[in-house]
Amino acid sequence: MNYWLVKSEPFKYSWDHLVKEKTGVWDGVRNYAARNNLMAMKLDDLVLFYHSNEGKEVVGMAKVSKEHYPDPTTDDPRWVVVELVPVEKFPKTVTLEQVKADSRLQHIPLVTQSRLSVQPIGKAEFDIIVGMAHE
């Protein structure tokens, strides 16, 4: 199993949108590194859902319900989507400030590559963030 973090501006697509839809299509990615990460996602991989710009916080956990396929929002075959389903809204959000303050998380892409919208994350770091959300 792999672990991921996806970022979305809440006014465009929030955690609540995902919950309401029950299955979300992660579309519109136009960055090659993020696209490659989408292509590496496997069925049932776990995903941290991060609200960027507004909030700047991890708000919940989703999982991959369908592996990559062509992005229906473009005719360009280079771009793909995955489908996500919500698993859990966290009882406490984990802010970017909290992540940056934790020495165990200094090397994750959320800190080092802040603009990347689809990021891999190690199991240990995933577990740390989930643990912070349940403290």
Topology of helices and strands:
Layout: E1 3-8, H1 15-21, E2 24-26, H2 32-40, E3 46-51, E4 57-70, E5 80-95, H3 96-101, H4 109-112, E6 118-120, H5 123-133
Written description of the protein model:
- This protein has 135 residues and is of the alpha+beta class.
- The chain has 5 helices and 6 strands.
- The protein has a 6-stranded mixed β-sheet.
- Strand 3 and strand 4 (57-70) form a beta hairpin.
- The longest helix is centred in the C-terminal third of the chain and has 11 residues, at 123-133.
- The mean pLDDT is 97.
Give me the count of strands: 6
Output the helix-strand order: EHEHEEEHHEH
Described by the principal axes of the CA atoms, the overall outline is globular
Overall pLDDT? 97
Strand content: 35-45%
By secondary-structure content and strand pairing, the structural class works out as alpha+beta
- Low-confidence runs (pLDDT<50, min 5 residues)? none
How is the main sheet built? 6 strands, mixed
User: Widest sheet: strand order?
Assistant: 2-5-4-3-1-6
Helix content estimate: 25-40%
Number of helices: 5
Please outline what is shown here.
This protein has 135 residues and is of the alpha+beta class. It has helices at 15-21, 32-40, 96-101, 109-112, 123-133; strands spanning 3-8, 24-26, 46-51, 57-70, 80-95, 118-120. It contains five helices and six strands.
Keywords:
single chain; about 140 residues; 6-stranded mixed β-sheet; about 25% helix
